[in-house]
Design goal:
- The complex is a heterodimer of chains A (about 110) and B (about 120).
- Chain A is globular and about 35 Å long.
- Chain A is built from no helices and eleven strands.
- Chain A has about 110 residues and is mostly beta strands.
- Chain A has strands spanning about 5, 10-15, 20-25, 35-40, 45-50, 55, 60-65, 70-75, 85-90, 95-100, 100-105.
- In chain A, the strands form two sheets. In chain A, strands 2, 4, 5, 6, 9, 10 and 11 form a seven-stranded mixed β-sheet that branches. In chain A, strands 1-3-8-7 form a four-stranded antiparallel β-sheet, with no helix packed on it.
- Chain B is mainly beta and about 120 residues long.
- Chain B has strands at about 5, 10, 20-25, 35-40, 45-50, 55-60, 70-75, 80-85, 90-100, 110, 115-120.
- Helix content of chain B is about 0%, strand content about 50%.
- The chains are: A mainly beta (about 110), B mainly beta (about 120).
- The interface of A and B includes residues 45 and 101 of A.
Amino acid sequence: DIQMTQSPSVLSASVGDRVTLNCKASQNINKYLNWYQQKLGEAPKLLIYNTNNLQTGIPSRFSGSGSGTDYTLTISSLQPEDVATYFCFQHNSWPYTFGAGTKLELK
Amino acid sequence: EVQLQQSGPEVGRPGSSVKISCKASGYTFTDYVMNWVKQSPGQGLEWIGWIDPEYGSTDYAEKFKKKATLTADTSSNTAYIQLSSLTSEDTATYFCARGLPGYNYGVMDAWGQGASVTVSS
């Protein structure tokens, strides 16, 4: 199985900060990498699919990049409503696998 | 509007089975696969598998092959997951999530609200 390692596990930042979340795969996943946001008590929400495609309705302050084994989710200007846990997810190889998540908090 | 409405919380005794439903609306049910995802209390997410409702074909993560059975009823636009031989490790919230066609089954763009399963004697 492909292991997905997210860093950091917890990130504290201030409103307006540029925030970068990282995800590393144990092998090449050919950009089949999605990012999901999960707020407390809610279902996950798709933010970015296939590395850098912004899902419809998601604010443009979210962006994704990467290739091979290394991927990044960037929030250009952190907003209070962005407090959540963010999961990366690979769908290049079965079984599909999630990272353990990065919990984003406000400083 | 795409909606996935899951059934309510379930309590199952150890060794028994439970079946959770996920009713889809707002799109053509047979045009998309349905994924299932497990979230244990306070834990991360695990992909269980998907079903193609049009053909009934399925794929499971190895870990869940003997635990979960995915089915779909195209007459009612409802997907199901049955969990068998319940143990405490099955206590979790289970989500259904629509997957896009083609090579994008894992692009889960709409999610149910989740259904909690508690295993207790």
